Amino acid sequence: MKNFLLVFIGGGFGSGLRYLIGKYLNSSLGSFPIGTFTVNIIGSLLIGLILGYAAKENSLSQNQVLLLATGFCGGFTTFSAFANENFQLLKTGDIMQFSIYTISSIVVGLIAVFIGIYIAKNL
Q1: 120 vs 54: CA distance, rounded Å
Q2: Which of 30, 46, 49, 92 could bond to 116 as cystine, CB 3.0-4.6 Å?
Q3: pTM to 2 decimals?
């Protein structure tokens, strides 16, 4: 039950912050879903930092990893919004935005995780 509550609390904070960032950024730049892209990249960097630091220092407890990585980062990032936004871009025939969004989200997200792990292990 304790693990569930840690994930629940972290996820709530992450989801709330994702909502605020998405609401602010998605309405400002036309059809490209910059809010979701931004939170997914920041979340990828954060999870790399958290898990890299946890592996290097072995100083984060399982509870802290659950709260921060599983809870906060899991709530902060969103695959379902990413998938829906891609569907909407396809539905409107915006193949270029769809391609840029999909490829850049995956590539930059993976790079952000690697950068986070690298930074955490080399600090």
Answers
A1: 9
A2: 49
A3: 0.91
